[in-house]
Write a structure and sequence with these properties.
alpha/beta; binds flavin-adenine dinucleotide
Length: 401
């Protein structure tokens, strides 16, 4: 990569976050620098981005996450135009099947009602449904143990995350961003500044600013700069399965109180995707995709929950299984964003803990504006600023799936 031995901004990681940021930076008329994205594997095969469930929802329990998600929704609905109308960029349809949170206890129902009130105040039309209403609208769902459900179908569902990343990349390249496949293995520091990025190929890139968009490897990149970042990879299991016969009615993305979620995969009413976290939920190496306990876990902890909730799921056959990692922020399971207080020119986009794909447009724009203009502009993301770690503050999001 001889053409760029110096970059004004080096972004480490070119998946959802790195690509979104690269686009918004390059698109800002006030930004004139050279942007270089270093991505270890351009196929993104092992990234959280490629292994996610590609879903978006407004049903969060914190104002900042609700606002971020609604911004991203508006952006995705108008994706191609917002990226400049390039004919080679795909539109991103959202399959708005909705999310249905179920509560089986009085406390769970109280929390759903409280969250729905906040969501409605912020423009998310969440409905609260009693068991009879749930059964009427979704006849396959077993509701005898359920006290309350929270449903929203406006802008909640599945979208094509790969198309989003491809669109950001293409639009960023058109604006002069260089994407380079290599691995960042070192950061040079002088005092409170990072001055250069060292690559596995042996190359050294002098830089004005470094952005950590390394997902599940965020703590490794921070450590290269001498910073301790509480982000660790946590395995998440996903199965696609098929029913013996189509369901009687539609199914939204259902979040079962027993800790399993399930959503439609395709449109034939017979294929579904479900996800669960292993127990115990321990940190893993970012390149560890093994799951020796998968079969036993499916039989003991996943299938019984699915079959109890949707009787038609008693006769199902898993067709595909994969392991992905959450970029889990152990401090408070929320994004860590912005200039790190310990360094002058080190920016974080980390710790998304399972809801990062949908936040990429909003976070990309907000962090770009923070870099170019020195403050949040379009979206006030101060609650998610990485500086809360030092202050011991937490942003507690109760709706982590
Ligand atoms: C099973 C599962 C389901 C999910 N479902 C959803 C969902 O429905 N909705 C949602 O919004 N979010 C979901 N998420 C979360 C979402 O996928 C992530 O939060 C988001 O994709 C994070 O994007 P990222 O770009 O920050 O990180 P990543 O996608 O992890 O990408 C980081 C990139 O950095 C690169 N990199 C790392 N280290 C280096 C280095 N040293 N040098 C160069 N490159 C490097 C990696 O190769 C990688 O491509 C899910 C995650 C999982 C695992």
């Amino acid at each position: 990569m001889t053409e760029m031995r110096r970059a004004d901004v080096v972004i480490v990681g070119g998946a959802a976050m790195g690509s979104a940021l690269a686009f918004f930076l390059a698109d800002d008329p006030a930004f004139r620098g050279r942007i270089l994205v270093i991505e270890a594997d351009m196929s993104l095969a092992r990234s959280a981005t490629a292994r996610s469930h590609e879903s978006i929802r407004g049903q969060f329990t914190t104002e900042v996450n609700i606002r971020l998600s609604r911004f991203s929704l508006a952006f995705l609905r108008d994706f191609r135009a917002r990226l400049g109308g390039d004919r080679d960029i795909a539109d991103i349809p959202i399959r708005e099947h909705g999310y249905l949170y179920l509560a089986a206890t009085a406390e769970g129902a109280r929390q759903l009602a409280e969250s729905a009130a906040l969501q409605r105040r912020l423009g998310v039309p969440t409905e609260l449904l009693g068991p009879d209403e749930i059964a009427r609208r979704f006849p396959d769902i077993h509701v005898q143990d359920i006290r309350l459900g929270a449903l929203n179908t406006d802008g909640e569902g599945r979208f094509d995350g790969s198309a989003m990343v491809a669109g950001f990349r293409r639009a960023a390249r058109r604006r002069g961003v260089v994407f380079h496949e290599d691995e960042v293995v070192g950061l040079e520091r002088q005092g409170a500044r990072v001055t250069a990025v060292m690559l596995a190929s042996g190359e050294r890139i002098a830089c004005g600013l470094v952005v950590n968009a390394a997902g599940t490897r965020a703590a490794e990149i921070a450590a290269l700069a001498g910073i301790d970042l509480p982000v660790e990879p946590r395995k998440r299991f996903s199965w696609v399965f098929r029913t013996a016969r189509p369901l009687r009615g539609p199914l939204p993305l259902v979040i079962d109180p027993a800790g399993v979620h399930v959503l439609p995969e395709g449109r034939d009413g017979r294929h579904f995707l479900c996800g669960a976290r292993p127990e115990p939920d321990l940190p893993a190496a970012p390149d560890d995709f093994d799951a020796p306990e998968e079969d036993a876990f499916w039989l003991a902890r996943v299938w019984p929950v699915l079959a109890a909730r949707v009787p038609a799921f008693e006769t199902i056959r898993p067709m595909r299984f994969w392991v992905g990692h959450y970029d889990y922020n152990t401090h408070d399971a929320n994004a860590l964003l912005g200039f790190h207080p310990a360094l002058e020119n080190f920016v974080c986009m980390n710790g998304f803990s399972g809801h990062g794909l949908q936040q990429a447009p909003g976070v990309g724009l907000a962090v770009a504006e923070a870099i170019v203009h020195g403050n949040w502009r379009s979206l006030a993301l101060d609650p998610l600023h990485v500086g809360r770690l030092q202050r011991g503050e937490k942003v507690v999001e109760k709706a982590i799936i």
